[in-house]
Design brief:
- By secondary structure, the protein is an alpha+beta fold.
- It has four domains: 94 residues, Pseudouridine synthase (2-Layer Sandwich), CATH 3.30.2350.10; 124 residues, Pseudouridine synthase (2-Layer Sandwich); 60 residues, PUA domain (Archaeosine Trna-guanine Transglycosylase, Chain: A, domain 4, Roll), CATH 2.30.130.10; 123 residues, Riboflavin kinase-like (Elongation Factor Tu (Ef-tu), domain 3, Beta Barrel), CATH 2.40.30.30.
- Helix content is 21%, strand content 35%.
- The protein contains eleven helices and 24 strands.
- The relative contact order is 0.11.
């Protein structure tokens, strides 16, 4: 999964919601950890950055960035949704020319107050505003929902027809372009609505970097999905970087496992992209005068080195036994020591003996399980281990948790996992007595 972790710039078509795009990417990549950096109206098209895998942790670093749009403003009508999808609420035969529109635009540049449309996804007492509007329970946006937004650039591009124009907008997060079109109409003394909207940029992500869902599916099927994925460090180039070279092995291990270290220089009190010997590790900050990794995004193999999980074997569902791979279900472990969900090659230490093992951490999507479990298939052990102490030492992550279309496919994959884990265990320092 490491190769597909990052940001995919989706070219969202009109008619698709942002949540629909997230669902489609989850399906195409078979990955649960997917999110977007800010809603784009269903009627709008354009750039929708999608975060995949651990890149979902980047949300706070990407969500507040500038947006750029091209919109069509249509004069002579107003609608209840402020765009072309709504019901007409007023009409006018006033004709607006380029000169009048150009004269009105400067008043909307800078920090302005907006009243979001009543047909919006804002929450009021836990319910979407547009749902309340459809039920007739609200006819105007509550005063508390007014907001200050910033328009950095606003220009007339060209006239597209009688009373219709293209405008380009560069603005802050949370700006409703359809409301901006309505307000411009009010300033011109003529009702107006947004005819269509294209988002050409969201932060550093541009239209020329975007892929349709179909193109993403094609790349994934051809084993070339990395062509569409923007690596996590490149997606956050606006965050200052800190490159570390020549650290002692002790300090490397301390840093990788979350401890703060002194790096022999002052560090500004802000997040930094951390590189160790040229390798991106994630984000770190100055905490009490020491550099500490706060968001780990590096190779999980670094953190697996020497990782140990200890607990007691509890009787569970016997799913593994039915598949021909009996498992020991671990409970009573320290959840803070739990690595990310996935399938791992491990060493199982049971009754003073070490065995090669495969450990699954997750919710077993093939069987629709919702409870997270730690289940270990211990190779070479066929006794009763219920109630006994079990120590797991992690060697390598083999794969993410994925859903298989059939039980036979799952069994075949478990057999492959077991063969690889046994090979890795043979070379491990923890298995001298195997």
């Amino acid at each position: 999964m490491i190769g597909t972790e990052g940001v995919i710039c989706v070219l969202k078509p009109p008619g698709m919601s942002s949540s629909d795009a997230v669902t489609d990417i989850r399906r195409v990549l078979n990955e649960k950890r997917v999110g977007h950096t800010g809603t784009l109206d269903p009627a709008a098209a354009g750039v929708l950055p999608i975060l995949v895998g651990r890149a979902t942790r980047l949300f706070d670093f990407l969500v507040d960035k500038q947006k750029e749009y091209i919109a069509e403003i249509v004069f002579g009508k107003a609608t209840d949704t402020e765009d072309a999808t709504g019901e007409v609420t007023s009409v006018s035969d006033i004709k607006i020319g380029e000169a009048a529109l150009k004269a009105a635009l400067p008043a909307f540049i800078g920090e302005v107050e907006q009243t979001p449309p009543v047909y919006s996804a804002l929450n009021v007492n836990g319910e979407k505003l547009y749902k309340l509007a459809r039920k007739g329970r609200v006819t105007e946006t509550p005063e508390i929902k007014k907001r200050r937004i910033t328009v950095y650039e606003l220009e007339l591009m060209r006239q597209t027809g009688e009373n219709s124009f293209l405008i380009r907008i560069v603005c802050s997060k949370g700006t409703y372009i359809r409301t901006l079109c309505k307000d411009i109409g009010d300033a011109c003394g003529c009702p107006a609505y947004m005819g269509f909207l294209l988002r050409t940029r969201s932060g550093a992500f541009r239209l020329e970097d975007a892929y349709s869902i179909a193109e993403i599916a094609e790349l994934f099927g051809a084993g070339r999905i990395e062509e569409a994925v923007i690596p996590m460090d490149r997606a956050t180039e606006h965050i200052p970087e800190l490159r570390l070279e020549g650290l002692s092995e002790k300090n490397k291990n301390l840093l990788i496992h979350g401890a703060g270290i002194s790096v022999g220089r002052s560090i500004a009190d802000c997040p930094h992209r951390i590189y160790l010997d040229g390798e991106f590790l994630g984000f770190g900050e100055n905490i009490d005068g020491k550099l500490t990794i706060t968001i780990w995004l590096g190779d999980e193999a670094h953190q697996l080195k020497g990782m140990k999980l200890e607990g007691k074997v509890e009787e569970e569902r016997h799913v593994g036994r039915k598949l021909g791979f009996p498992t020991a279900n671990l409970t009573g472990y320290d959840r803070r020591q739990l690595p990310s969900e996935g399938v791992y090659a491990t060493i199982a230490c049971l009754e003073d003996r070490a065995y090669p093992a495969v450990t699954s951490i997750g919710r077993n999507p093939t069987f629709g399980a919702e409870k997270l479990t730690v289940e270990t298939h211990i190779m070479g052990f066929d006794g009763n281990c219920y109630g006994k102490r079990l120590v797991l030492r992690f060697l390598k992550k083999l794969r993410p948790m994925i859903r298989f279309d059939s039980v036979s496919e799952l069994k075949a994959q478990i057999a492959r996992d077991a063969a690889l884990a046994e090979k890795l265990a043979a070379d491990s320092k923890y298995t001298e007595n195997i």
